[in-house]
Automatic annotation (TrEMBL):
UniProt name for this protein: Uncharacterized protein YkwD
Disordered: annotated span: 71-91
InterPro entries associated with the record: CAP_assoc, CAP_dom, CAP_sf
CAP-associated domain segment(s): 103-239
Domain SCP: 257-370
Organism, as annotated: Metabacillus niabensis
Length: 376
């Protein structure tokens, strides 16, 4: 069949050639055909319409290159500029320090070292997580008590020093070999709160602080983050789930956004921009799951994340969605997502550009988290 198609094509070409140049060939042979072709080419080159078309195409090409050249500097500005890591020192009063900050330091001492905060947002302890970073490099968060003293610390970057010989290169086995047995529960009055033991994190009571060390299942269970909460601050939280509020909802949303960007920077990826419109789509889905007691990317009307974005007039070239529920905080939600391969791939997808996070609480105060990633 291909041979027949080729023969037909050759016959059509030959027929067209004979139609235009059969006469000159009969009169003057091959030389006549050559002369006729030269004349036609000259006429085409000098035709005003052809010249106009060529100029138009040329102008369009030049304009395209000008736009590319103008866009290039902006692209360079968007690239992550490396920031020098701090010179880390061994802790003096505590067993752990984060960015040379220890539990009990004052806010003024912290900000003399690292500058002013980038964001403050309510957390599950009823105080703010105060985020410090330089375009998400050297990222850590501090919780201050009512006396403006450090009562909580968190980082998912290599900013930890400790007297126990633990680092971000330590495996879970190495951590367990250098600490006491991890806690299985936290006793508060007459209530015992169980600590999940799924090998993704361990919680220890060290220096009257609850130290939770998170591990990366996809990096040989090495340390990937640390949270330190003073015993006094932990005891302020009376219930397993925090009391829902609009401020806490917003706090969890911005914290997940910041944690995602801090993780991306650690893996050499660009920082995502906050997208307010897709945040509303994410919030609506979280609220729907919370209200109707289900957990799925497909809602009860059979609509996918992409259907919901389209319905909300959100345009995109590529998009993705992460879901979590039941975790008591944005930190535990994020670390859980990083240990789930599909969700991790979204967080570390190099081609995503924007992120909106939406949180809602069920009638039992159970949090639902939705992250919508997209590239426009």
């Amino acid at each position: 069949m291909p041979k027949v198609q080729n023969i037909v094509a050759l016959l059509l070409v030959a027929g067209g050639f004979w139609y235009f140049y059969g006469g000159p060939f009969q009169q003057d042979g091959i030389q006549g055909v050559i002369n006729e072709i030269r004349t036609d080419i000259t006429e085409i080159k000098e035709n005003p319409e052809v010249i106009s078309a060529v100029n138009k195409v040329s102008n369009e090409i030049q304009l395209m290159f000008q736009e590319l050249m103008q866009a290039s500097p902006e692209k360079e500005e968007e690239q992550q500029q490396d920031v020098d890591p701090p010179k880390l020192e061994a802790p003096t009063e505590q067993s752990f320090s984060v960015h040379n900050v220890e539990i009990g330091d004052t806010r003024s001492e912290v900000e003399q070292k690292v500058g002013t905060a980038k964001r403050s947002s309510l957390n599950e302890y009823g105080v703010d997580w105060v985020a410090y970073h330089e375009n998400y490099q050297n990222f850590f968060m501090v919780a201050y008590d009512d006396k403006n003293k450090v009562a909580g610390l968190y980082t998912n970057q290599d900013l930890v020093t400790t007297k126990l010989g633990i680092s971000f290169e330590s495996s879970r086995d190495a951590v367990l070999a250098k600490t006491n047995e991890p806690l299985t529960s936290i006793q508060k009055g007459f209530v015992s709160y169980q600590i999940q033991n799924n090998e993704e994190y361990d919680t220890f009571l060290i220096d009257q602080n609850y130290v939770t060390i998170f591990y990366d299942k996809h990096e040989n269970h090495t340390v990937t983050a640390i949270q330190i909460i003073s015993e006094e601050l932990e005891n302020q939280r009376e219930n397993f789930y925090p009391v829902p509020s609009e401020k806490l909802k917003e706090g969890f949303e911005y914290q997940l956004f910041d944690l995602t960007n801090a993780a991306r920077v650690t893996h050499g990826l660009s920082v995502l921009s906050w997208d307010e419109s897709v945040r509303e789509t994410a919030r609506d889905h979280s609220q729907d799951m919370a209200d109707n007691n289900y957990f799925s990317h497909t809602n009860l009307d059979g609509k996918s994340p992409f259907d919901r974005m389209t319905e909300d007039n959100i345009t995109y070239r590529m998009a993705g969605e992460n879901l979590a529920t039941g975790q008591t905080s944005s930190i535990f939600a994020h670390e859980g997502l990083m240990n789930s391969l599909g969700h991790r791939e979204n967080i570390l997808q190099k081609d995503f550009e924007r992120l909106g996070v939406g949180v809602a609480f069920s009638s039992e105060a159970r949090p639902y988290y939705t992250e919508n990633f997209l590239t426009k």
